[in-house]
Structure formats: C-alpha cells, structure tokens
Amino acid sequence: MPYEAELAHALLTVTRATLLTRRVFTSSTKGTLSKTDTSPVTIGDFGAQALIISSLRHAFPNDAIIAEEESSSLASNPTLTSEILSLVSSTSLSPEEEARLGGSIKDESQLLSLLDMGKSTGGPSGRVWALDPIDGTKGFLRGGQYAVCLALIEDGDVKVGVLGCPNLPLSDTAPLPTSAPDPDDASTGVLFSATLGGGASSRPLTHTSSKPQTDGVKTIHMHSLQPDNIPNATFCESVEAAHSSHSDSSAIAELLHIPLSQSVRMDSQAKYGSIARGAGDIYLRLPVPGKGYVEKIWDHAAGDLIVREAGGVVTDARGQNLDFGRGRRLEGNTGVVAAPQGVHDVVIKAVREVLEGKKDVDR
Ligand SMILES: Nc1ncnc2c1ncn2[C@@H]1O[C@H](COP(=O)(O)O)[C@@H](OP(=O)(O)O)[C@H]1O
Ligand SMILES: [Mg+2]
Ligand SMILES: [Mg+2]
Ligand SMILES: [Mg+2]
C-alpha cells in the first residue's frame, strides 16, 4: 500500500502525543499562555509539537515540516520549559515503540530547537508534514473537544492524514456528543486516519504495548445522503462564533429545511472525523464578515483527506477544492463546506445564495 510507512509512523507519533495532551487535559494546571495574536497555547500544545517533530526528524529527515507553534511564544519562561520537558519525558509506549519514534527529548535546548523546526513555508512542490499539536485549544481549555492533527502533503496534495480525538466516543455509531466528555470513560478516544486512494479508518486511542494499533480498526463511511433527505441531515460547526458565522449557518439551514435542533457545535477537526464516520452529515465553516481571516493548512489537511476518503466532498464556501500547495495558509480558499457526495452541490448552492445575498452589505 502506498504511504504505508508514513501512515504507521503518523499513527504512532499522534498516539504518543495525544496521550500526552490527555494528561494535561485532566490536570488542573495547563500552563496557558496568550500568543501575540491573543490566542491561547498550553504546555500540552508545546509538548505534543516537540514530540511529533522529534519523531518526524528521526524517521523522515529530508521532509519539511509546517507546525503551528514556535518557541518564542514560550517567552523564555524557564518554569514552563522545564514542565514541558518533564511532560515529554514520561511515556506510555513500549521501549520498541519509543525506538521507532527516535526516543525521548534529552534537554531543554533540544526541546526549544525542535519546537522551531516547523517553520517551512510549504508551497506547490515537495513533501511537507502539516502539524497542529492541539487543534481546538479553546475547547481543550473549556473541557470540550480537541484533536492532535498530522498530515503529509506531497506536491500540494494531502497523501496521509491522522487525527487523534481523545474526547470523542470510541463507537462510530454514537451520536455527536453535546456535553463535556468524561476523560475516565474507557469508551472515549478515537484515532481517524486515511491515505489517498486507501480509504478512511477509525481505531481506538486506548493504547498499551501489548495491544497493537491494528486492533479494532474499522473502515468508515459518510452517510449516503440524497437531496430529498437533506431536512434529516445533522450539521456541525465551530463553537466559536468568531471562527465561523453562526448567523449564516442558521440562514443556510433554514434554506435547506434543516431544523436548527439538528446542529451540533464542537471544537476542532473532531468535526471532520465525526462526519466521516456518519455521526453527522455536513460541516460548515463560514467566513466571519469583515475579518478577512485566511485558514491555516494545519487546521484542515488531515480532516479534508479523511472526509474525502470516507466518501465526502470538501470545498471552500465557493465550491473550490482546498488548495494545500499555496504555503502555510489556504490562500486560495475562503471557508469550508464538507458534505456527502450526493448533496454537496445542493449545500453549496444554499451557501452561495446566503453569502452572495449579503455581499454588498458586509463583505
Ligand atoms: N478568526 C478565525 N476564523 C477561523 N478560524 C480561526 C480564527 N481564529 C483562529 N482560528 C482557528 O480555528 C481553530 C479552531 O477551530 P474550531 O473553532 O473549529 O475549533 C484554531 O486552531 P487552534 O485551536 O489549533 O489554534 C485556529 O487556528
Ligand atoms: Mg492555536
Ligand atoms: Mg488548529
Ligand atoms: Mg493548535
């Protein structure tokens, strides 16, 4: 299977990092800092990023890396740096698995330099890994959903995608969660993955060295929805109204005769994983008027491939494919609309009607 080695590595390194973030999630102090753009970052984000970059440098030393965080956000904070080092030093993987990932991080200076190895500018050619160590940091802090996200992009196309979603139900048939997860619940925690042309899968996040990662793997599919059934569809969107316009999504739902009670708000790329396994149908991310925000590739690369491999279509709000070959951001796109193949056209038509109807007013 093409990209077998990359997928196996991505699954293991995302597992190790997600288990680290789970330890921070359940701890009372998360070492939260505010970045220059006022968005939050925690010792969980830094720890997961350092561990994943360290393993990628070990296994694929010639590949470029684009990652969200950088050491300057730590603002030379020695207390937090040493907390992160102790966090990355404790592992629940076996010695063999640790060896596959290149082992642990030695000291603070190695930790800081690893954090800064994700500054590639990307572009249309070559191999680049896109890493979001915690997507949905606000959800992570609120006790909601978050995801550890890693994708391999080659010549602008996503070839491998893995999402670690520790707070989603393990069961593919469980409904979209609407309340805060119970981190002690053994039926919580799932990994989603896909390779281009190889389909999409889910598997339990619960990891012990005696339980290989091939245990419990299931192929996942989106619901096969047809236009007549759209009023029965569930849609999901960001919890944060600043990240996706809630008023536009309500107008679109109304146009499609989808009751608002069928909308679920959740943080992170857990939305992509959820619709890919049929625990929801449509993901809307609608540009907030007047902001001119350009989406980051690490917020979408893994989820885009997982949904497409599960039988869905992912485009921006104008119906264009997401273009991951334009650098660190999705410079050619605005918003995201993901839906099953049978209804994506109809959803885009409604999205365009609502967004273009207000074009002269506020965008
Ligand atoms: N104004 C904005 N519009 C859209 N997305 C935004 C945004 N400001 C921040 N984001 C992104 O939204 C991501 C979270 O998405 P969601 O709202 O679906 O959970 C954040 O990822 P991080 O949490 O990794 O920083 C961040 O990159
Ligand atoms: Mg962030
Ligand atoms: Mg993110
Ligand atoms: Mg993040």
From TrEMBL:
The protein's enzyme class: hydrolase
Cell membrane recorded as keyword: no
Chemical reaction(s) catalysed: adenosine 2',5'-bisphosphate + H2O = AMP + phosphate; 3'-phosphoadenylyl sulfate + H2O = adenosine 5'-phosphosulfate + phosphate; adenosine 3',5'-bisphosphate + H2O = AMP + phosphate
Its EC number(s): 3.1.3.7
Binding site for Mg(2+): E68, D132, I134, D135, D299
Keyword Hydrolase among UniProt keywords: yes
NCBIfam families: bisphos_HAL2 (TIGR01330)
GO biological process, one term: sulfate assimilation
Listed GO MF terms: 3'(2'),5'-bisphosphate nucleotidase activity; metal ion binding
Transmembrane segments: none
Membership in a protein family: Belongs to the inositol monophosphatase superfamily.
Origin: domain of life: Eukaryota
Keywords carried by this UniProt record: Hydrolase, Magnesium, Metal-binding
InterPro entries (alphabetical): DPNP (IPR006239), Inositol_monoP_metal-BS (IPR020583), Inositol_monoP_superfamily (IPR051090), Inositol_monophosphatase-like (IPR000760), Inositol_monophosphatase_CS (IPR020550)
Name this protein carries in UniProt: 3'(2'),5'-bisphosphate nucleotidase
Pfam families: Inositol_P
Entry-linked SUPFAM superfamilies: Carbohydrate phosphatase (SSF56655)
Needed co-factor(s): Mg(2+)
Function in brief: Converts adenosine 3'-phosphate 5'-phosphosulfate (PAPS) to adenosine 5'-phosphosulfate (APS) and 3'(2')-phosphoadenosine 5'-phosphate (PAP) to AMP.
Organism: Ramalina farinacea
